[in-house]
Amino acid sequence: MTPLMEADDLAVDYQAPGRRVRALDGVDLTVARGETVGIVGESGSGKSTLGSAIGRLLSQNAQLSHGALTIDGESLFDLSAVQMRRVRREKLGFVFQDPIGSLDPTKRVGAQLRLALRGRGASLDVTGQLERVRLADPRRIARAYPHQLSGGMAQRVAIAMAMATEPELLVADEPTAALDSQVRDDVSTMIFALAAEAGTSILWLSHDLAAVGRRCGRVAVMYGGRVVEDGPASEVLARPAHPYTHALANSAPASAAPGERLQPVPGRPPVLTGPSPGCAFADRCGFAIERCRSERPRPVRIKAQSVLCHRAEELAGSAALAVHGVGSAVATTPPVPLGGDRS
């Protein structure tokens, strides 16, 4: 069965002053219909570039180096501008980190929703769409401008716009990071509930490993512009097979006992100017050997996970890759029930 979304050896570069920076260095990833996939990794790992590439929303200084990206079998970088607008309108939805910045400051909320619903006939029910995202007094909200809304309200409006057309794939890039901690869970739960109702697949980009593990069926870990580990959320986060996933999980707040210091990932992510000659994590990895620095790892299968590591089979099941706390928290924490927050 054809995947809804497929990235095949996708490489994207940015032309910076005096140099070229490689953001994606050969990403391989698929998303099936109805699937929920979380993308995790440090800042600079390539998550946001991948999310933007899916909508062909990359900045002007970005360039496709090689590879392919398809939605429902259509190669996005081969489409005309008119064809790409059709794909965005009919198949894609986006929720970004900055809720106010994602809305048009010159138009009232109702007018923006009507534009999103244009051509949908009977679905042109602005107040009904605002009620779906649990906004109190939707008529007042429809008359408001974005700057008159709180961050939580603005993000709910953005979600309403993204889900109004029942897209086949929703790309959510840190959609709750700018919100108050009291409303994050409610907003996240609402997004997944609306997507499940519409049969929409979700690609959820986040730094919050525990939240991703609770809500996503699958996790893809990105580092140095590649997916270094991919598999079921409960397996990847509780029993990582890649040293980077192990370090990332042990640096998460959920992995530390009260009073215990977190263990940060040593060093800093690389800034690539071209293809990495070996494993991009080698300089930060306590298990690296010379081969890691000179030979690009190819995917190997470790139980349910696909892993980019030369030593994955050797390290499989090793106590050296044990996760101290986040794995059990991810595996056993139930989904947060739908709440009544209206902020």
Give your account of this protein's structure.
Helices cover 31% and strands 23% of the residues. With 343 residues, the chain is of the alpha/beta class. It has two domains: 203 residues, Rossmann fold (3-Layer(aba) Sandwich), CATH 3.40.50; 93 residues, no CATH class. The protein has an eight-stranded mixed sheet with strand order 6-7-8-3-9-10-12-11, sandwiched between helices. A four-stranded antiparallel sheet has the order 2-1-4-5, covered by helices on one side. The chain is globular. The N and C termini lie far apart (41 Å). The C terminus is likely disordered. GO terms for molecular function: ATP binding; ATP hydrolysis activity. It is found in: Cell membrane.
- Our Rg estimate from Cα atoms comes to 20 Å
**Poorly predicted regions:** 326-343
The strands making up the biggest β-sheet line up spatially as 6-7-8-3-9-10-12-11
Number of strands: 12
CATH superfamily heading of the largest domain: P-loop containing nucleotide triphosphate hydrolases
- The level-1 CATH class of the largest domain: Alpha Beta
**Residue share in helices?**
25-40%
Mean pLDDT across residues: 89
CATH topology tier name of the largest domain: Rossmann fold
How many domain units? Answer: 2
Largest β-sheet summary: 8 strands, mixed
**How do the SSEs run, as a string of H and E?**
EEEHEEHEHHHHEHEHEEHHHEEHH
In CATH, the architecture of the largest domain is 3-Layer(aba) Sandwich
**Proportion of β residues?**
15-25%
Class by alpha and beta content: alpha/beta
Count of DSSP-assigned helices: 13
Shape: globular
Q: End-to-end distance, in Å?
A: 41 Å
